Amino acid sequence: MNAAQAKQIQIVSLLELMGHKPSLSRGSYFWYKSPIRSERNYSFRVHTDKNCWYDAGTGEGGNIIKLVMECYQCDMSDALKYIASLTNHHHNINLYEPTPITEIKQSKGVQIKKVCPLRNQALVQYVESRSIPFALANIYLQEVYFYMKDKHLFGLCWSNTNGGFEIRNKYFKTSSSKGYTFLPGTQEGQSKTVNVFEGMFDFLSYCVITNSDLPRWDTIILNSTSFVKGMIGQIQCYEMANLFLDPDQAGSRATKLIKENHLKAYDYSVNYQNFEDLNHYHNSVPSAQINVGEWMVRN
Questions:
Q1: Which helix (H) or strand (E) holds 205?
Q2: Structural domain of residue 72, as residue ranges?
Q3: CA distance 139 to 272
């Protein structure tokens, strides 16, 4: 077995053969007790759409080969031998099939050509310039190459619920098909609380401030306040909503609309009223001056 063949195997299938069962699954996310170390909580996550894993306890993550190397403290050659020995006699192993570009919703103005893990140094530097560590960004962001107005461009991307990608780089933002982003929380059972952010970098800033790579509660990233009106019903399904929208006119209107339709909606933009948004606040205020207690959400 070579590396390319090993990477075709779904990590969740390998973990099952290793005796590990998920404690929670929502959509393409599966949570486990870490197979790498001893723990009581479930802080090890597998993203089946990307076929990658992340251990919040160590800050490490990667592909199936790196997982085996970490579990058994072996080199790549021995890891491939182990994967082969474990899977060769099982014919019902699920194989990883990346979403074809043709299945990604695209607009006439944006034509996706390639989506891959975040490695482009220009994009990594852009992420870090906004005070987001690469290890955290690598959990939620990918890099995308696309054509727009006959120009070959690249940027950061993340998926939305409309089957498209939100795209950002240092100079502009666009999308292949507009939509909001939903991230399930790690809490066992149905989440009673939802955190609502206006942008991805606001969410990532919150993760850094609260030292929580994998938030406990469900998260909605609007990507645009224009989606708020149509999402009131979804937000009302939660007992509590914590709001982290921009303190500008559009963000304030969206916050007001949610609060008018939800008895337990709390506005956290009061913590960054003098800044453009939560990321601007995070990027401007030294961490030593941030009172983390002010960011502990109600639940």
A1: helix 200-210
A2: 3-87
A3: 26
